Structure formats: C-alpha cells, structure tokens
Amino acid sequence: MFEIFGIPSQALFGQLLIGLINGSFYALLSLGLAVIFGMLNIINFSHGAQYMMGAFAAYLLLAHTGLNYWFALVLAPLVVGAFGIAVERLLLRWIYRLDHLYGLLLTFGLALIIEGVTRNYYGSAGLPYAMPEALRGGQNLGFMFLPNYRAWVIVASLTVCLATWFVIERTRLGAYLRAATENPTLVNAFGINVPMMITLTYGFGVALAAFAGVMAAPIYNVSPQMGSELIIVVFAVVVIGGMGSILGAILTGFGLGVIEGLTKVFFPEASNTVIFVIMAIVLLVRPAGLFGRRV
Predict the structure, then answer these.
(1) Burial grade of 165 (CB within 10 A; 0-12, 13-18, 19 or more)
(2) Structural domain boundaries of the chain?
(3) How far apart, in whole angstroms, are the C-alpha atoms of residue 228 and residue 225?
(4) Which of 31, 93, 216, 220, by CA, is between 20 and 30 Å from 51?
(5) pLDDT tens for residues 254-268?
(6) Is the dihedral of CA 239, 212, 165, 190 positive or negative?
(7) What are phi and psi of 59, to 5 degrees?
C-alpha cells in the first residue's frame, strides 16, 4: 500500500469509488429532473418519492412474486413510469400555464402522501434487498478492492445517462422534444401529438428515478425516507448544472459525487455541505448554472 498526499491509497480510492457511486445516483435522478423541467417546465419535488417507489417495487416483486433483481430492473421503472403518466394526466396537466410554485407545491404534497402511505404499511425501518448472485464478490485491483455490484451501478448509470443524452440531442425524436418545448403550437401543427409527447416524457423521467431506486436497493436499505434524504442534494446538483440541461445534469452529478468523496478524505467535516457551498458560489457567479442558458 502506498500513500498519496499522506493518505493511504486504499482509503483514497475507496472514497473515490463511493463518490462515483453517489454520483451515479445524483446523475440519474438529476437527469430525470432535467428532462421533466425541460419539457414540462415543472419542478418535480416528488422525484425522491418516485425513486423510493422504484426500490419498493423491486422489493415487492421479489417478496410476493419471486421475480429477481434483473426482472425488477425492467418491470419496476415501467410500473412507476405508468404511475407517473397517471399523475401527469390527472393532476399536472391542469397547472402547466400557472406559476412554477403551483407545480412545486403539488409535487411536494404528492411526495408527502406517497412517503406517508409507504411508512404506514412498512414502517420507518429499512428493509433488506439481496444483491444479485451474478454480481456478488469483487475484483482485487492491487491498490483497492472493487465490488462487482458497485462497478455495475457506475457502468449502468453512465450508459443510461449517455443514451438519454444521445436520444434527446442527436435524434429526430429529441429534435421534436426540444421543438415542442420552445413552440408547442407549431410542432402540433405538423401533426405531432404534443400532449402525448409531454405525458410520455414525464413518465420517462419518473422511470429514470425508479431505475435508480432499483439499483440502490441492494446498496442501501429500502425505506420510505430514502428519497427524501437524497432529493435536496439532487436539486442542488440540478441547480449547479443548470435547470433543464441534460448534459449539465450528467456531468455535474458525477463530478459532484467525486468532489464529495474527496472531501470526505481531506476535510470530512465539510463533506455534508460541500455541494451546497458549490451551489452558492455558482449561483453568485452564474445564476443560470454551469450549463444552463441565460434568460
């Protein structure tokens, strides 16, 4: 074992790994928020609750149907995404023309309801979720031990984030989505069903949160509070990257996860606040965020 800046290499790389894992969840969740805000112009405060619903969906699929992690990774985002579509059609569609505050209050209330109902049925204690057999164990890299499941989380998150960015920024579907954001009346005139596109976009953003929840289930206990504990940090990530910026959500999510991990090594007392300090500095220097567009 060697040292870097007086820090044992195993401790340093271990915290970097934790930072990348946290960054993976930050990136996925902030990406979902960016997609929803960019298309619907709504600040989705229920995103943390939908992340928690993904984890609980995986737990219930295993407990009641015997479906393992891999089935849950596909089914849970679909189920929670369908729930998101129902929310958009029944509630959110009525407040698009109103101030952002109405959407924030509505989704915040929805988050409280989801968390309260879940806590009523399953309590506040965390529920364990078994790690998939194929991803148990790890690799000895010499300078650190890399758990297989942690490596999978990072790779899967990065793949989904980059695929989402490619679809939105480099395909015709993404061009339609961006055009519908800027001028929905014109896009609708070309025969494109803009309301349906908006509904599916919200469902996709919710499904991203549920996907992150399924991947988090084997690492953290499945509990009603797991979303509320994370959503404030994720909103800070979105603000730093720029509201509605897809690339900003991805790069800022992974970057801040790494910075948070390194802070735990060199200045542990600041690890819980470093992201909010960065947010304050960014808002002073560039209020639109690092990748956001000035209005």
Answers:
(1) middle
(2) 17-123+143-231
(3) 5
(4) 93
(5) 999 999 998 988 888
(6) negative
(7) -65, -45
